Amino acid sequence: MIYPANEESLRIAAAALRAGEPVAFPTETVYGLGAGAFNPRALAKIFEIKGRPRFDPLIVHIAGLETLGDVVDLEALAPGVRDEVRRIGEAFWPGPLTLVLPKLPSVPDLATAGLATVAVRIPVHPVARELIRLSTGAVAAPSANRFGRLSPTRAEHVAEQLGDRLEIILDGGPAEVGIESTVLDMTDRPRILRPGGLPRARLEALLGPLPVSGLPVSGPSGELHSPGVWNSPGLLTSHYAPRTPLYLHDSGEMAGLEYREDEGYLFFSRGHGEPGDRGGALEVLSDEGDSLEAAANLFAALHRLDSLGLRAIHAEAAPPQALGEAINDRLRRAAAREP
Ligand code: TXA
Ligand code: MG
């Protein structure tokens, strides 16, 4: 059930977490499905509720830098790296950034899929941080969607996908960032494992140029693949996927499409050939082409187009600057077909 996030519902949700029951809660990126990070039985329930076919590592959410040492083995870091982690934390936390760091033995294998590292994030959303503080101090949470499906940026998105499997969904309003956190591996040389809500350029301003790696679907920085590659079956990892088949196009191609009543159109901005009167099946993520605004609207727009029973959704790729990199990552995965 959806509860407006207030003092009373926060108390009830925190008690549920302490008792080992998962709770969905708002963050500034997407809604999370949380469980006490130190409780393996509670963690197992997350995978069951999401229908994940295997155990993927989760992000552990903490309320402030002072509790980083509760989950991360700071001693295992070289002193230089420890300083760098502190600088990054002070610059970008709380915020849409996740750091991968060596874990302490107290973090269960289920939270990290048996890895020696743990992914940690301090969210900005006050409801998230209050919930973490009131409950177990560290809350492991993947996005609160069924496995492989669209991430939720509103409480109703969570209810649609998981409402029958979950007692408590805290409603903290629409997610302001709207796209998952940037995941930065700090165990070796810093590298981005997943582009996300913190733009690459902001990290690079502090850390210098970062390599892109680890993602089967990402080209070198800023590169846009040819549309043929985007649509190739089996090449990409399907994820963040609407049920309606999605095709990704660059701007030029969108203008050349023949419009159909039974297909939907997702434009990044105006002025790239979108027709004026597509009625219900047209979404423009940002009139002015602002990638922050576009990211905030992305999943809600996809949820809506996906609910219309269309034959196909055509999506326009974003220019790769700022949050465009993360938007294109999600769209490529949404366009990927399982082999
Ligand atoms: O914004 C977000 O990050 C949201 C909100 C709820 O905080 N959470 C989220 O969680 O997107 P999830 O489970 O959907 O994605 C977690 C990502 C995955 O790409 C996973 O592979 C990576 O983090 N990850 C987690 N632990 C890791 C580890 N130890 N090493 C490398 N990658 C890890
Ligand atoms: Mg997810």
**Percent helix range:** 25-40%
Structural domain tally: 2
Provide the CATH topology of the largest domain. Answer: DHBP synthase
Give the percentage of residues in beta strands. Answer: 15-25%
Major sheet: 8 strands, mixed
Structural account:
It is a single chain. Helix 1 (7-18) crosses helix 5 (126-134). The protein folds into two domains: 2-207, DHBP synthase; 246-335, Threonylcarbamoyl-AMP synthase, C-terminal domain (Rossmann fold, 3-Layer(aba) Sandwich), CATH 3.40.50. With 339 residues, the chain is of the alpha/beta class. It has helices at residues 7-18, 40-50, 79-92, 109-112, 126-134, 155-162, 200-207, 227-230, 251-255, 291-306, 324-335, and strands spanning 2-4, 23-25, 32-36, 59-62, 97-102, 117-121, 138-140, 169-171, 182-185, 191-194, 246-249, 263-267, 282-284, 312-316. Strand 9 and strand 10 form a beta hairpin. Magnesium ion (MG) is lined by residues 142-143, 151.
Question: Characteristics of this structure?
Answer:
single chain, 339 residues, eight-stranded mixed sheet, 2 domains, 17% strand, four-stranded parallel sheet, alpha/beta, DHBP synthase
Put the structure in a nutshell:
The chain has 339 residues and is an alpha/beta fold. It has helices at 7-18, 40-50, 79-92, 109-112, 126-134, 155-162, 200-207, 227-230, 251-255, 291-306, 324-335; strands spanning 2-4, 23-25, 32-36, 59-62, 97-102, 117-121, 138-140, 169-171, 182-185, 191-194, 246-249, 263-267, 282-284, 312-316. α1 crosses α5.
